[in-house]
Please model this.
Amino acid sequence: MGSRGRSAPAAPVADHRRRARPARSAAASAVPAARGPGGRGGRAERRRRARKVERRGRRSAVREIPLLIMVAVLVALVLKTFLVQAFVIPSGSMQQTLTIGDRVLVDKLTPWFGWKPERGEVVVFKDPGGWLKDEQRTPPGEEPVVVKQIEQGLTSVGLLPSDNERDLIKRVVGIGGDTVECKGTGPLKVNGRTLDEPYVFPGNTPCSDDEKGQFKVTVPRGRIWVMGDHRQASGDSRYHRSGPGGGAVSTDEVVGRAFTIAWPLDRIGRLAVPGTFDRPGLRALGVAAPAAVGLVGAGPLVLRRLRGLRR
Model:
């Protein structure tokens, strides 16, 4: 008989499943099933990757440290050269305003714009010649060799002030054209006006009662008359009248104005001009030094000159 009336044999059920499953490679077969996302092998791999990233970050930070140090040194050099410099006070010639070991910050920027010292300001200036031999300097304390080397390195780039600077710090008493006078023990007079000087070291007199401490001088143009607040322990303009300028310091020698005490912490404060120097009468009597032409005054001056050329 034929196959008529008989049902076709059933196809194997598992046959299409076997054909649908992709063949696994030998490498994939060798990986244990446990290395899945939640398996123990997956966590270990993530930890290894995290440690590798951490090590790479540490190496990057180590490479950046020298660059950061170079940038810090460069910034310090720029600040020291053009903007602000720190100075250490090595003697007691400015006590009580400044004591030995104080660190002061000196403005070096404004002189670039024509600033000139004014009465009452505390200024730092280059040694005009032989002044430092009259300053009684306190020898520095003994420190470990390593500490000294570190301080010398920081000092050389301006991050720490040097105690060997060939500079002096005094108070401006008179400017170009002023008449400064001292008789007996004082008081000190500028342009005939008596100064009230509460900043003078306690127990000192405003003027020294000796031959060199007695004077009456007219300050030359372009110079300043400077005195220490510790009047009996300061080798200032009074004692160098036989030198250039008759003891008055050239304004070209001035480094800048000391505007604040930065160290130690318990002495931090601004170095303000005493009120006795702000009296209008004192300024009116004095013959002021020629003012520098600033950016504001330059315009009218140029216009006046142009008008003169047109005529």
